[in-house]
Every structure is written in C-alpha cells, then in structure tokens.
Write a sequence for this structure.
C-alpha cells in the first residue's frame, strides 16, 4: 500500500515538473548555438540575448510564432552577430533595437513587418543585408542610410518600403546591390552610387508613377559595366545623365519614362547593347549621341523623345533599326549608316520633324509605316539594293504643314522595281500624289503605273522641283492674287514667281520648331493678304528677277507701323 502511494506521489511530481517545463518553454528558449530568446507579454518585448549567430528558420517555424501578433518591440543583444533567415517575418513589431555587433541580417528577417515605422537605423557593424530582409515594411519613413560597413544588399531587400520618402545614402564600401533592392520606394533627392559597383541589377531602383521616386541628380560610378532591365524605370531624376565609359550594356526599360533628365544623352562607345524600351518617353533629352559599338537599335529604345531637337547619327556598324525605335521622336534629321540593311516597321513613325530622308546604298528592307507621318522636303531616293517596301512606309499626316502639305516630293528609284506591299488607299506605301521615278534600263517598270502609282522615267540627276500654284486672295482693286511657288528638295527654300510685282513683300511664317506654317503677300501697307500667317514671320523682298532676299525676322505688326 505504501509502495503504491509513493508511486502515485512520484508521478504527480513528474507531471508538475513537465507542466512547469512546458510553461517555461513557451515564453523563452534557445534560438542559436549560444543565442536565447524571451518574450515579455506585459510589454510586448521579444529579446534575443546570448552571443553569436541565430538559427535560420523556415517561414512560420520560429519559436515565437504564437506571439507574432503581440510583439511590439524586438531587442537584439550586443553580442548577437547574425540575425537568422525568416527570424521575424510578419510580426506586429513597430520598433527594432539592433545590437552593436550585428554583421548579417538574414533573408526575409523582417519581411512584411508592416507596423515598423519611422527611421530605420542600421548599426555600423552590418556587412550583409539579405534578400527580402525588409521587404514590404511600408511604414518605414524618412531617410535611409546604408552604413559604410555594408558590402552586399540582397534582392528585394527594401522592395515596397513605400513610406521611405527621404534621401537614400549608400555606403562607400558597397559592392553588390540585388535585383529590385529598392524597387517601389519613394525616395527623393539625389542618388550617388558608390565606386566599386559594377552592375545595377534588374529593377534595383525602379518605381511607379503613383509613388514617384527621386528628384535630383543621378551619379553613376566609373566602375559600372552593366545597367540591368528596368534598373531606373519611372524615376524622376533631373539634370544630365552621364553614362560612364566602360558600360557595355543597358537593359530593356532601363530608363523608361525617366522624363526629368535633360541635355544630351551621350552613350559611350563601350556600349554594345541598348535594350527594348530603354529610353522610351525620356522626353527631356534635347540631344542624342549613340555608341559606335552598337550593331542594332532595338524596339522602342528611343521612342517618344519629344524634346529631341538635333540630328541623330546612327553609327556605322548598325545593320538594323528595330520596330518603333525612334517613333514620335522629334529630331529634324537622321543620318543612316552605310551598313544598314533593315528598317523595321514604324521605326520613324510620326517623327514629325523629320523633313529630310536619305537612304543608304545597301538598304534592303523598309517595314510597314517606317516613315509614316514624316514630312520630307527632299525627294526620297530609293537605292538599288531595296528589295521590299512595307505598306504605308512613307504615308504622311497632312495636318503638320498646313498649306504646304500638298508639296509632292516624289520617290526616285535607282534599281529594279522592288516589292511594294501596300497599294490602294489606306495601305499605300507612299502618299497617293507621289510619282515613282525610275532609271531607264532597270527591270520591271512597265506601263504607266506600277502597283497603282504613277511612274515616269528619270535621268538620274534632275529631280522634280514640285511647282505649285496658290491663291492668296484679292488686292485692293479686287484682282485675284496668285503665285506659283516651289520648294528646293534639299534645302526647303521657298521660291515664289508669277503674279507678284517687283517691290511686293512676301512673308513666310514659321512655328517654334522652324516649320513653315503659311505664306502671305503684302502689296501695300493697307493691303495685306495672308494665309495662315502667324504673328512672327520672315520677310522676303522680291526684286525684278523674283529671287527672294531674306530680311531680318520681324513681326507683322511692327512692319505695318513703319
């Protein structure tokens, strides 16, 4: 009987001990070889103590999982050197107190801690920030300073930290920045990427139009070799963009819609590839210098550069200009290389300021709508190497030049008749009023028309001077004023003849881009006949031979008051 009672008492004591042990294990324990944790429910404080490295965890298996929604503050002890993988993701903590000896912050260590707020202060001891370490910590705000001790920032380390709205300062010893490391943040001010960085990875500093990102100057290091896809897309940097010598590739969408940059975009000759959409809608650039190392201009890479106002030289060695590469970009002229073989569809579509088109010998293919919406003032000469011309390749939008849009400049072919894809109305390769001129002796030009176009022989030298007649209105005696006028195919100079008396003044108006918008005639100070003439114009005084002499540009009103 006594033996039985003793056994029962021992069992009770054992059960009590197990219960006590279980209770203790629920609020504290071991989390590394020499690291320990404890949770104080009264203050919501989780403390990591001991020394050395914490354990790495799979998501959800860290020992304080049951308290993740109650944790308000995380305290990392001074002797802890490594914060483990998945140590504190999606906890409710609002404050982190780092110890002074933390060297590594593990992958996804604080991922999704959406209550973290205010400035994030990292200790000077940190060398590595793991992938996704602070991803989605959207309430962090203010400046972010990466200490000089940091050498590596992992992929998506600060991605979607949308509240970071101050400046970003990168430590001088940083060597690697991962993909999307700062994507979706809302930093302002300038950014200097430290020397030693050789690659800006995919989406590293990309943003969105909704959040905005950066407003100052971007400074790239001389050590840089690669700018990855979408590296700076949708950012708001301003000033010049200086691509360092030594950069070899610029990825797709790298600077897409970075419309704050200004000045000339100059790509060093070290650049071998520029990806699709790389500088799409960078409308602040006024000039463009391309790298001599390019062999192809990719799809939409320089499209919608509205600010472009200087000639673009495509370097020798380029064999192909991709789809929509320069569409809706406003350069006044483009110099094509002798190595060019193919111009893909819409390559220069709606490049409205492109008034002179010179195609190189050796060009074989012109794609659909390649020059549609352009307004060449020179004759378009098609080299003998041309094999195919796409539909609407030279179609034009008549609205751009107002009353001068009826000037038919024509197309001149040096070789045999090529394949012309578009015929008829909407799909014409050339404007319907153009004549196709061919050299006698070349093949397949038969009859009076070819593929629906009027054709005519050409001596290889003289080009049609496109004479045109225009009525300007009536003089003070009620007589109709008419003149024949033409445009020099190479210079765009306007010559007027016929019904204009010696001593008459001819006014030619221009828009802000130097495009002719109208022609007017002043016979007397009280008889000013005008056609779409703007206030500011250039005046030509006709002499006996009807050759215009350019006077100083003045306003019409000023002239009438003299």
């Amino acid at each position: 009987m006594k033996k039985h009672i003793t056994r029962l008492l021992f069992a009770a004591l054992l059960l009590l001990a197990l219960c006590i042990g279980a209770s203790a294990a629920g609020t504290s324990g071991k989390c590394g070889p020499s690291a320990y944790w404890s949770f104080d429910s009264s203050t919501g404080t989780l403390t990591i103590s001991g020394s050395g490295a914490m354990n790495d965890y799979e998501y959800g298996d860290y020992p304080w999982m049951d308290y993740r929604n109650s944790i308000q503050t995380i305290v990392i002890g001074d002797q802890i050197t490594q914060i483990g993988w998945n140590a504190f993701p999606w906890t409710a903590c609002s404050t982190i107190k780092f110890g002074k000896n933390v060297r590594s912050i593990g992958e996804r260590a604080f991922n999704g801690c959406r209550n973290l707020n205010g400035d994030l202060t990292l200790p000077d001891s940190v060398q590595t920030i793991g992938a996704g370490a602070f991803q989605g910590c959207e309430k962090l705000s203010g400046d972010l300073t990466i200490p000089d001790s940091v050498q590596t920032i992992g992929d998506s380390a600060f991605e979607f930290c949308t509240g970071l709205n101050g400046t970003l300062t990168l430590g001088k010893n940083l060597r690697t920045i991962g993909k999307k490391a700062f994507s979706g943040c809302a930093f302002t001010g300038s950014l200097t990427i430290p020397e030693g960085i050789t690659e800006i990875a995919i989406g590293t500093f990309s943003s969105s139009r909704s959040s905005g990102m950066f407003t100052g100057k971007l400074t790239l290091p001389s050590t840089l070799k690669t700018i990855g896809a979408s590296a700076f897309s949708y950012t708001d940097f301003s000033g010049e963009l200086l691509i360092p010598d030594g950069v070899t590739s610029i990825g797709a969408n790298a600077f897409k819609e970075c419309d704050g940059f200004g000045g000339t975009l100059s790509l060093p000759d070290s650049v071998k590839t520029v990806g699709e959409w790389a500088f799409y809608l960078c409308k602040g650039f006024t000039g463009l210098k391309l790298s001599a190392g390019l062999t192809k201009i990719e799809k939409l890479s320089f499209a919608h550069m509205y600010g472009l106002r200087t000639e673009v030289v495509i370097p020798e060695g380029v064999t192909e200009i991709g789809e929509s590469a320069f569409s809706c970009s406003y350069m006044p002229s483009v110099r094509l290389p002798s190595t060019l073989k193919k111009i893909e569809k819409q390559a220069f579509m709606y490049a409205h300021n492109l008034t002179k088109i010179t195609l190189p010998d050796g060009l074989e293919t012109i794609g659909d709508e390649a020059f549609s919406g352009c307004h060449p003032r020179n004759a378009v000469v098609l080299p003998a190497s041309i094999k195919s011309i796409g539909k609407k390749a030279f179609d034009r939008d008549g609205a751009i030049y107002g009353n001068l849009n009826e000037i038919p400049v024509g197309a001149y072919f040096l070789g045999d008749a090529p394949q012309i894809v578009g015929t008829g109305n909407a799909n014409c390769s050339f404007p319907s009023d153009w004549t196709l001129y061919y050299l006698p002796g070349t093949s397949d030009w038969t009859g009076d028309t070819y593929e629906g176009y009027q054709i005519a022989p050409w001596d290889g030298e003289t080009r049609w001077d496109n004479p045109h007649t225009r009525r300007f209105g009536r003089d003070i005696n009620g007589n109709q004023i008419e003149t024949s006028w033409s445009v020099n195919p190479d210079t765009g100079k306007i010559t007027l003849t016929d019904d204009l008396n010696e001593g008459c003044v001819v006014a030619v108006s221009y828009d802000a881009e130097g495009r002719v918008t109208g022609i007017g005639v002043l016979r007397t100070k009280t008889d000013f006949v005008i056609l779409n003439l703007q206030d500011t114009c250039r005046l030509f005084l006709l002499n006996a031979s009807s050759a215009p002499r350019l006077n100083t540009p003045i306003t019409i009103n000023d002239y009438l008051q003299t």
About this structure: The mean pLDDT is 81.
